[in-house]
Specification:
This protein is an all-alpha fold and about 180 residues long. It contains eight helices and no strands.
Amino acid sequence: MSLANQNIEHLIALCKQKNQLAQFEIYNRYCKAMYNVAYRIVKDEHFAQDVMQEGFLKAFTKINDYKQEVLFGAWLKRIIVNYSIDFYKKNNRITYDDFEKNVFKIEDSSENITDNLDFKNLKVAQILDAMNSLKENYRMVLTLFFIEGYDQEEISEILNISYANCRTTLSRAKESLRHKLTEI
């Protein structure tokens, strides 16, 4: 029996019965996207592959916890993102500034820096390179916000930081990115 034409709900039901062919079919459908998610966070091809594999293993062992409240791909992506961030934190000692304990003055210049930029001529690769050159906590927040599509509340949960700290970090990360893009 070929599982290639089966819908995802049927495959999930088979996975709950520990059907390895169904697990393999789900893996084949989602592995490229989940690899890309992991790679954007861990920034290493081999580690991203490992993280993706471990994420799939965790998803298949926790498949009975999937209640179909969200799309399966979103549920799986959340597992991969969380596993990727945990891996990255463990191996890179990422630190987050506690902006609630520090007071910063943000200068508001009369000239808006974005008025002078021609963002239409920037290439995606240039923007990603600029993001990757930022501080690690800025890169992580921008990746989760712009690329993975999480909102600030979800990011604060994922990174285990306060909502205010997330907002401040995101704001500063955007400003840092704008500054880097002006140099291009």
